[in-house]
Amino acid sequence: MATIQECRAALDKLSDNLARADEGVRGAAAFDRSLSCHITDLDQTFTGRLKTGRIRVDAVAPGPPVAKAEIRLAMTGDDLVALVAGQLKFAKAWASGRVRLEAGFRDLLRLKSML
After folding, report:
1. Helix 4-20, helix 77-85: angle, nearest 10
2. What is the pLDDT of residues 9-49, one digit of tens each?
3. Where are any strands of DSSP class E within the chain?
4. pTM here?
5. Sequence-ordered list of residues with C-beta below 8 angstroms from that of 65, at least 6 positions apart, any chain
6. Quick one: 26 exposed, middle or buried, by C-beta within 10 A (0-12, 13-18, 19+)?
7. Is 1 helix (H, G, I), strand (E, B) or coil?
8. Is the dihedral of CA 65, 74, 70, 45 positive or negative?
9. Contact status, residue 60 vs residue 8, Cβ threshold 8 Å
């Protein structure tokens, strides 16, 4: 089972990957939205913002998200680490229910081009 530190490192790596991505992906990520990522097996939630093509983590707290972020993710720590490492494809994980993503319709369209 991934630790909370490994999950934080995975989110930091994802942020770095977005910042180094080609213009199309960076452009899709260049919006300002609140973000939460609930790590279900650790029952911890990272909260922050997706802004200018980077993920900024502001806090981690026990339990599910207290406030409803504009973009909400939920998955196990192992799945987060595997997604960022490229060992798990987002579409397959989402289709099988291993990853949950909730956002407004317009945000889902923009996120689709990143994932």
Report:
1. 30
2. 999 998 888 777 666 555 555 679 999 999 999 999 999 99
3. 33-39, 44-51, 54-62, 71-75, 100-103
4. 0.89
5. 36, 38, 45, 47, 72
6. middle
7. coil
8. positive
9. yes
